[in-house]
Design goal:
2 copies of one chain form a homodimer.
Chain A lengths: L2 H15 L6 E6 L2 E7 L12 H9 L4 H4 L2 E5 L5 H9 L4 E4 L9 H6 L3 E4 L3 H13 L1 H7 L3
Parallel strand pairs in A: 3-4, 4-5
Antiparallel strand pairs in A: 1-2, 1-3
Subunit structure (chains A, B): Homodimer.
Organism (chains A, B): Thiohalorhabdus denitrificans
Subcellular location (chains A, B): Cytoplasm
């Protein structure tokens, strides 16, 4: 697996072990991970720290010039908030582990010129299938359903 | 002034006094404020706690049924991330202090069925004019420029 998607998946797996929503993300600049994170709904009672926003938060304040050379890797197709975060910072490339369990705002990203790559990675798919079967109410809460 | 916009402005003014980006927001359900907040870029080194996401975060985990009866008040037209947060949670109404200093994703919100109200409030406008003149680099960082 792509090492950056692997790192995002490790974040997701950590979230699963913590009893949380198992979605992970990393913000990548060149060959370096600037920030990594996973959904914090359960762990921190957070409504806004999804995997992608957590990775951005953990990367700290970065200059616009850096974001514009970054890729955002996430294990699951990004929701409107997280897609919007990518647009806010002009992140040019979003790499998505899978979109079978949830289809986020890929079309919006594409329409704004972001390169969107969907890997349909079996490990990413399986982890979400397991989680959604185990905790459907938590999952629904996370996506506002 | 609308008391909820006033509360958002008070958050923005607190952010200004703290040396931060002076944008404030409140999440309102019926006649009650569920959460309030202001941009935390300077105060907490945050890349994702804008006014609106901070208000959502401070409101804590809410059921989808509550968000769908809420209004999100913000002193400034919401950026893609914060507009996306409103879409994620199905918040049906966004009340905006002003959009003269920054025009966010109002069209996207409108196209998805969100009621968008822009008040062009002089106090909201003046606070941002002052801030942008004083700290243009901080402002540009906040909007990814």
């Amino acid at each position: 697996m792509d090492p950056f998607l692997q790192a995002a998946l490790e974040e997701a797996e950590e979230g699963y072990r913590e009893g949380g929503v198992p979605i992970g993300a990393v913000l990548v600049h060149g060959d370096r991970i600037l920030g990594r994170g996973h959904n914090q709904r359960v762990q921190r009672g957070s409504a806004v720290l999804h995997a992608e926003t957590a990775a951005l938060e953990n990367a700290g304040r970065q200059p616009a010039s850096v974001y514009r050379e970054c890729a955002l890797y996430t294990t699951l197709s990004p929701c409107p908030m997280c897609s919007g975060a990518a647009l806010l910072y002009g992140i040019p490339r979003v790499v998505i582990g899978e979109n079978r369990n949830f289809l986020g705002e890929e079309e919006l990203l594409h329409s704004r010129g972001v390169t969107v790559e969907v890997r349909q990675d079996p490990a990413c798919i399986d982890l979400m299938v397991r989680f959604i079967a185990e905790k459907p109410e938590l999952w629904n809460e996370d996506i506002g359903v």
